[in-house]
Design goal:
This protein has a single domain, classed as Orthogonal Bundle (Protocatechuate 4,5-dioxygenase, Chain A), CATH 1.10.700. The chain has nine helices and no strands. The termini are far apart. The model has no long low-confidence stretch (mean pLDDT 87).
Length: 117
């Protein structure tokens, strides 16, 4: 952290800072690769090999296998890149937000609407 910077904890939230970026570099790099349809197909063809190709940790690979987006966030995944992973399975950012908050997608959408009032 820089001089004079105070880190504020937000209960239930992983703060994505430099340390998290380092921890999740391989995971986020892999998820970024999903911008290319050929890479998405290669991932679906052999997920384990694809994770290995990018150097994911055992914990990250297990979370990918389990589709555990919350665990992936804990393991350094950035929501922007994880949305690319989730998109392979037809999940969108609101699906991820619902997972993070423990709400259904409909409840999460209602919360967003209420917050905009």
């Amino acid at each position: 952290m820089g001089t004079g910077t105070t880190r504020h904890e937000i209960p239930g939230t992983t703060i994505f800072d430099g340390a998290e970026a380092q921890k999740g570099y391989a995971l986020n790099k892999m998820c970024f690769s999903f911008n290319d349809g050929t890479n998405r197909a290669a991932f679906l063809d052999d997920e384990e090999a694809y994770c290995h190709r990018y150097g994911l940790s055992d914990d990250q690979t297990k979370a990918i296998r389990d589709r555990d987006v919350l665990r992936l966030l804990e393991l350094g995944g950035h929501p922007y890149y994880l949305a690319k992973f989730a998109g392979i399975f037809r999940l969108d950012v609101q699906d991820l937000g619902a997972l993070q908050t423990g709400l259904s997608k409909e409840e999460f959408q209602a919360r967003l609407v209420a917050a905009g009032r």
